[in-house]
Structure formats: structure tokens, C-alpha cells
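yo

u said u wanted the structure for the complex thing, so here. seqs first:
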Amino acid sequence: MSITYGYPKAFIFDVFGTIVDWRNGVANVSQKFFDEKNLDENPHSFADAWRAKYQPAMDKIRSGNRGYFPLDILHRENLDQLLSQLDLTETFSEEEKQDLNRAWEQLPPWPGCVEGLNAVKQKAIIAPCSNGSIALMTRLAKFGGLPWDCIVGAEIAQNYKPHPNAYHKSVAALGLQPNEVVMVAAHNSDLVAAKECGLQTAFIARPEEHGARQTIDLEPSEKWDYVVTEIGELASI
Amino acid sequence: MSITYGYPKAFIFDVFGTIVDWRNGVANVSQKFFDEKNLDENPHSFADAWRAKYQPAMDKIRSGNRGYFPLDILHRENLDQLLSQLDLTETFSEEEKQDLNRAWEQLPPWPGCVEGLNAVKQKAIIAPCSNGSIALMTRLAKFGGLPWDCIVGAEIAQNYKPHPNAYHKSVAALGLQPNEVVMVAAHNSDLVAAKECGLQTAFIARPEEHGARQTIDLEPSEKWDYVVTEIGELASI
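structre next:
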């Protein structure tokens, strides 16, 4: 579709929602913990409530009001808040809370992602550009078989998307120029920020990321460089 | 051999010399450039002379006299010095010098390394802990088929081995404790530094890293946790 540049030298990917199904993944792990305690919490509501604390937690860091902490720590802080709100703080031991926090390391890739990434990897560098830490991205990759060449993103940048540093420092770590790199995401806001940093952009809709009644990011919000329905299509653009 | 800990959660590897044959790799690429210019430089002497500038360049950063610059830049500075010493500065164009500097991205793995790393990867996280940059490690991995889970090392730490930060920050980026991680190297000095940081240690001799007349690092200098002759042996310790 794009004729401005040659084939990209790297594709960097949003991960939560774009590559992996965080909502069902977190719900599946949480359900096991609820079952052990005979709780009838709705695991999808729990996942949604946990995720709802994600952007506010990162906002403090993006705004400069807090130094960088990896997402694993923010997830744990958010979990503690959520358990408190649900009056479940005493229900789980410290060790159980640590294990529950590792739900974010056990998220299934969307169908076709592993095959698609392997195809793209034959032609360019592939790496996550996620708000997840290197430790989290590494474990997610081992869990789901994601064949990354390397890991860039928030920890490399010491700041969270959509702060421009997250894109600029990721591109620099790859030894490339912004226009040699494609940001791939299911979230239009991620692509808006990447485009402002000079990256190429690719949108893939994930209409069930937030469940059956999702209303956002069902379609590209503007004319991105590429719009695909499977990751593997990026191997033949 | 070690019975102190359970099976390690991660193995981090020195790369230049331990995983890849930098001397023959750099010599092979350099030879092509010399042939094009009808030069009769000895490519192995050239590789040795280039590499001899490696530690002094990093010393300035390790000592705090210079901020962190990725190794790609140090390699290029060292190349320019070397070409000047050989009265070859004008022989190569700027583009040719950039290409020649990429010799360090085209280093063949020692026999058995790829298979060995794949075996270890089934049991633990594997990552380079090299003085090479993320960009350089990524390209080396694609060149040689090195199946890293992620990349840690100098760029993560913003300092060079054997500075303790290079080990401590790499272990932290993996979300692990030092005693859960094994540093694997063909250089005893690397293992001395890793051990001081609390990591486990594994030695593998590379008796031809520096050519047929190598005199250093032919044997382990002390009782490391593991001594292997093939990387794959680490999968069954």
C-alpha cells in the first residue's frame, strides 16, 4: 500500500490487545484463584477492573510525577487496590498475590499471530514495543511462542507509550530511523503517537479485545500506512 | 555439578568469543574490502588490531570519564583510528567504512552453539549479556540464527562489563535474583566479575578465539559452578 519507502527494516508491535488476548488470559488465571477460594467473582469483570487501573497508573509516570517503575510493579499495585475494593485483601496470601500478578505473563496470542510473526521475521526485525517490561515480554513470549528478535518499548525508554520517548528510544535501540520502522497496533491512539514520531503505521482490528460489546478501535480512525486483518499479511506488503 | 540451587531460571551469555567467532568473522568481511581495493593487508592481523582497541575504548566509559555510547560507535571510532594508522583513511569512502563496521554484525557462531542454545531455551530464559548493543546483538542473532529470548547486557545497563552494573541491571531486567542466573563465558575475567555480583558461573573454553597460538583462557582459572565443552550441556546440568 505504501510506496514512499522500501520494505520496512523493522516492525514493532503493541502487545496487550494487539498480539495477545489479555482479557481472557487474565480471566482464565483469575478464575483458578477464585475457584480455590470458593469465590463467585466474575473473572472477566475482574480483568476489566484490573485493566481499568492501567492508564491512570502510567499517567503519573508519563506526566513526570513519578519515576519509571516497570509495569509488573504497577500491575501489582493495581491488584492490591482492586482486592481492597472487593474486600478480598485478606483472602489471598502474599505468595498467592504474587502468583495472581503473573496472570499477565500467561496471555494467549490471538489466532494466527505466531505464524504471522514467523513470516514477518523472515523479512525484517520484529520486536514488541509494549508498555510491558523486558521480564514480562520475555515470559509472555515463552508462554505463547512469540518469536521476537529483541525487546524494545517502555523499559528501554524508561517511559510509557504514548510518550514520544517510548517510540524514539525504541527505534534508536534498533539502530534505525523512524521511517524504516512500522508500529503495528490494534489501538488508533498508539498509531497517532507513533506517526507523530515519524514511524510508519499498521492497524489490525481486534474487535473482541474488550469482549463482545466493544465499541472502540473497531476500525482505523485515519488512513494508516497499512491496514491488515492478519499479522502475516505484513510479510507481503 | 552445583547442588546449591535448583535448575537456573536464566542463562546469560558472553557473545564475542563465547558464542561467535569474531576473529574469523571480521577477517572474512575485511578481506572482501581489501580485495576490492587490491590491498594485501592480512585480514586476521587487521581483526586483531581492531579488537585490541576494544578494551581501551570501553575503559573511558567504565571509569566514568565518558558517558555511555553503544559499541557500534566505539567500533567505528576504533576503525577510523586503525585505518589512519595503516594510512588507509582515504582508501575507503564513508559508506564503505559504515559497511565495513558492520563486519561485527556478521560473525559466525561456533559449531554447536545454535543447537545448544535451542536446547537450553527449552528449560530456561536465554539472553546475551554482551558489551554489544541491542541493535548489534539483534543483527548478529539474525545472521547466525541465535534464538535469544531477549537481549540484556551493556545497553540495558548503560555501562560495560566487567562493571558490576552490567550484571546487576541485566539480572534485574530479567526479573530474577542473581543466584537464579548463570553467566556463561569463555573468559575467566567475565566470570570473576559475575561471581562477585552473585551470579552462578559457567566456563566454556574457546581455545582458538585468538587464533592457533592463543595463550589465555585455555582453562578455567578457578572452580566455576559449571565447566562445559558444548553449550548444549547446560540443558542437562
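DSSP finds ten helices and six strands in chain B. Chain B touches chain A at residues 72, 125, 127, 133-139, 141-142, 148-152, 155-156, 173-176 (CB under 8 Å).
cya
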